[in-house]
Amino acid sequence: MQNYRVNPYRPSRLRLGIMIISLGMLTSIFSVVTMVVIVTERLAYPDGYADPFTELAGIQLGQPIESLNAYACEANDQSYRNSRFYTCSFDLQSAHFKRVVVGTYDRQITSITLTPHNLWVYDLIQRWGQPDHIRHDPAAYVLLWDEGVMAFTTSSQQKFTRRLAVKTLTLSVH
Fold it and tell me: pTM of this prediction?
């Protein structure tokens, strides 16, 4: 009779079966979670995600000051269109934005500050990805992107989530 030594590194059939079943269960769980995320997004946006920033397609950083002619952009303080620094603002009664303040330098748009309503952190992440920096101030969360985007959210008493409302959004040339 011959003695066979059991290789401790070779899994037994029982262990191999348990590993296969575990892998199958993990795959199933991952599939269910993926489906829940997809269904939830479809319920939230039945017609697909509508980019709220398309409402502002006519105002972009770097554009000449003449692109503001399509809007009733009123000068703030003593700003004049022919001066080197010019700031104007206008109300934009749209689905996502209430007020727009535009800053220019040398007749080029250098900053856009938006007062939104019905705009969420989720919308910003859809547009610019995850923020590069999140600062927790006593009154709000401050979100910063390296592309020159800064947003203030609602109360910081809440846990940070994508569902926080955006209170102010500034886009600037950096």
Answer: 0.69
